[in-house]
Write a structure and sequence with these properties.
alpha/beta; two-stranded antiparallel sheet; 21% strand; 135 residues; Rossmann fold
């Protein structure tokens, strides 16, 4: 179950930003993580995700690789520069080796999870990264 974090006198659930241009994927992620007690924010583009990151405290960024306009590797690289303490996970079914390698190095990701994912593995990785990041 969710590891809550203290914020002043309040205890709040970690916020996860999920980015994918496919509505069905975002719906699945929202269902999985809400069941675990996380607060979920979704974005359907990298540009929308950057706006959210500028305006909200995000505890974990999970993004798809292949999206219109700005791919996930560029989003991850920008997030690594501007929000280096926000952990990042690449969730992808996209198999282009060069872009994936760039996302893993420039985006300084915690891990890559391939689509279709296993719910238990995804939840385990998210719990792991949020637990590691909270210490």
């Amino acid at each position: 179950m969710t590891k809550l974090k203290a914020q002043g006198d309040q205890v709040v659930s970690p916020q996860i930003l999920c980015v994918d241009d496919e509505h069905a994927i975002l719906s699945s992620l929202r269902r999985i993580f809400r069941r675990e007690g996380y607060k979920i924010i979704t974005a359907s583009s990298s540009a929308e995700a950057l706006t959210i990151l500028e305006n909200k405290q995000i505890d974990l960024l999970i993004t798809d690789m292949r999206m219109p306009q700005i791919n996930g590797d560029k989003l991850l690289a920008e997030a690594a520069i501007r929000w280096p303490k926000t952990p990042r996970i690449l969730l992808t079914g996209y198999s282009e080796i060069e872009s994936t390698n760039r996302a893993e190095s420039e985006g300084d990701i915690y891990c890559r999870i391939d689509k279709p994912w296993d719910d238990d593995e995804l939840i385990s990785k998210v719990n792991e990264v949020l637990h590691v990041n909270s210490h």
